């Protein structure tokens, strides 16, 4: 083989090596680009997921704040309604108390009231000996109905009427809003059993019993006032 053939063969080998190297380089480049694209996609997806989670977290926070604000506003409205309702009921009770201050003006009606309340109290106590405390101004009226009340009690209870002593310590006269109104308080002689039949005590009982009936109406009135 002469020099020309050797040179030619060397040139062919060089071209082959260069071609193989180029192909290998292209292969490495494509593989690197593919790995880069995969990693880039993973990073993008991770960031998207992070953004979605952050968005969901902030959305929930906003919803929680809205619920808290709504709850606070609702509670504030309820308090206003209850306060307005309580004010109206108190006004009604005050008005009724003022009317009760005049209950003794009609002596015949007041006398019948005294008798009825004495009988009612005796039926509740059912004690053989009773201490009755009334207003000093009512002593004569109480004495005038006492025997009739005892007879009516005996008839209703189907037993003997108790002995009744009028206490020398009297209830305060009207119109003291801080003291019990008449007509009286009854108790057993030992003071262990007490039946308070003052008009303000009875008024409290009536309002407690009627409050479920009054409240819905007053709540509606109060609600309408709050929205005006």
From TrEMBL:
InterPro entries per UniProt: ATPase_E_C (IPR038495), ATPase_V1_Esu (IPR002842)
The entry's keywords: Ion transport, Transport
Q: Which GO terms describe its cellular component?
A: proton-transporting two-sector ATPase complex, catalytic domain
Among SUPFAM superfamilies, the record links this protein to: V-type ATPase subunit E-like
Instruction: Provide the GO MF annotations for this entry.
Output: proton-transporting ATPase activity, rotational mechanism
Q: Which family does it belong to?
A: Belongs to the V-ATPase E subunit family.
Please report the name of this protein according to its UniProt entry: V-type proton ATPase subunit E2
Can you name the source organism? Sesamum calycinum
């Amino acid at each position: 083989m002469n020099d020309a053939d050797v040179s030619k063969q060397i040139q062919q080998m060089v071209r082959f090596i260069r071609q193989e190297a180029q192909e290998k380089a292209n292969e490495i480049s494509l593989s690197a680009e593919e790995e880069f694209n995969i990693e880039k996609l993973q990073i993008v997806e991770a960031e998207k997921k992070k953004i979605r989670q952050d968005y969901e977290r902030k959305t929930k926070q906003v919803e929680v704040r809205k619920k808290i604000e709504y709850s606070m506003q609702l509670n504030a409205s309820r308090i206003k309604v209850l306060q307005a309702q309580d004010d109206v009921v108190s006004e009604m009770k005050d008005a009724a108390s003022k009317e009760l201050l005049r209950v003794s003006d009609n002596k015949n009606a007041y006398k019948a009231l005294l008798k009825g309340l004495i009988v009612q109290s005796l039926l509740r106590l059912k004690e053989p000996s009773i201490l009755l405390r009334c207003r000093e101004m009512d002593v004569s009226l109480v004495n005038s109905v006492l025997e009739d009340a005892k007879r009516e009690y005996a008839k209703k209870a189907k037993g003997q009427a108790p002995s009744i002593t009028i206490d020398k310590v009297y209830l305060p006269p009207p119109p003291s809003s801080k003291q019990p109104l008449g007509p009286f308080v009854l108790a057993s002689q030992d003071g262990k059993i007490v039946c308070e039949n003052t008009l303000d005590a009875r008024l409290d009982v009536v309002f407690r019993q009627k409050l479920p009936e009054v409240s819905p109406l007053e709540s509606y009135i109060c609600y309408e006032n709050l929205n005006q």
